[in-house]
Write a structure and sequence with these properties.
By secondary structure, this protein is α/β, with parallel strands linked by helices. It has a single domain, classed as P-loop containing nucleotide triphosphate hydrolases (Rossmann fold, 3-Layer(aba) Sandwich), CATH 3.40.50.300. It is 37% helix and 26% strand. It contains 8 helices and 10 strands. A hairpin with a 2-residue loop joins strand 1 and strand 2. Helix 6 runs parallel beside helix 7. The chain binds adenosine-5'-diphosphate and magnesium ion (2 copies). The site of one magnesium ion (MG) has 3 residues, from loops. It comes from Floricoccus penangensis. GO terms for molecular function: ATP binding; ATP hydrolysis activity.
């Protein structure tokens, strides 16, 4: 079992404090969702976990099995088993999708334990068929000319191939049609298990119709203001953020 702990995290962007003391504990075998209105700091949280240098952590800790990761570079965090799906995945010209995934998988393996080409291809075929992906997606250059939906689906393919310990999925559902949403959800659900934990960040409740989170957190104004189970997401669907903001007396 592994645990990702976020303790009293304060994050600033250009001297403006965005996160004002976030506390969260995610264990493997759990799927957490963070929901919240636009501009409350959800993407800032995911960027800080992954180590984006534009986000300054001014206070607090992020612990992966007790080890503070804040001093680690982005690639070290990835090797440790963190996976971040970007809200706007970048295009990396000149490297195919398959090459990228094999390199990323091998980066987490010892020198004498690299994945063989055969094993890689077998696994890739298996995961691509689970996601109803066309086989030419593997040989295309990474994210070049991918539609929004293809990028999202491809991120889930990367997730299934890399098998991280923790995934932070920021707005993995934005801009997806219903079929793509179902495929993305199927991929995330397929990861569920004792060696995997996820933090799913979403503005809408819709994704949570397909992935039932174990824990739901509401973020407002840079803090987690309420935590509950899947019913909390349903309440939000019914009341919007206004109901919770009124109850707690928080402006957002
Ligand atoms: P959310 O993901 O919840 O919509 P964000 O984390 O993207 O919120 O943004 C939180 C706040 O930080 C917003 O007020 C936003 O305008 C501000 N912000 C985000 N990124 C930057 C940036 N690069 N420079 C300045 N302000 C930013
Ligand atoms: Mg935003
Ligand atoms: Mg965001």
């Amino acid at each position: 079992m592994s645990v990702l702990e976020i303790k009293d995290l304060h994050v600033s962007i250009e001297d403006k404090e965005i996160l004002k003391g976030v506390n969260l504990t995610i264990n493997t075998d759990e799927i957490h969702a963070i929901m919240g209105p636009n501009g409350t700091g959800k993407s800032t949280l995911s960027a800080a976990i992954m180590g984006n240098p534009n986000y300054e952590v001014t206070q607090g800790e992020i612990l992966f099995d007790g080890e503070n990761i804040l001093e680690m570079e982005v690639d070290e965090r990835a090797r440790l088993g963190l996976f971040l799906a970007m809200q706007y995945p970048s295009e990396i010209p000149g490297i195919t999708n398959a090459e990228f995934m094999r390199a990323a998988m091998n980066a987490r393996r010892d020198e004498d334990d690299k994945i063989s080409v055969m094993d890689f291809i077998t696994k890739l075929d298996d995961k691509m068929s689970l996601l109803n992906m066309h086989e030419d997606m593997a040989e295309r250059y990474l994210n070049e000319g991918f539609s929004g939906g293809e990028k999202k689906r491809n991120e889930i393919l990367q997730l299934l191939m890399l098998e991280p310990t923790f995934a932070i999925l920021d707005e993995i559902d934005s801009g997806l049609d219903i079929d793509a949403l179902k495929v993305v959800s199927k991929g995330i659900n397929a990861m569920r298990g004792e060696n995997f934990g996820a933090l799913i960040i979403t503005h809408y409740q819709r994704l949570l119709n397909y992935i039932t989170p174990d824990v739901v957190h509401i973020m407002m104004d840079g803090r987690v203001v309420m935590t509950g189970d899947a019913d909390l997401a349903r309440r939000l669907e019914a009341e919007g953020y206004a109901g919770i903001s009124k109850e707690l007396g928080i402006e957002y």
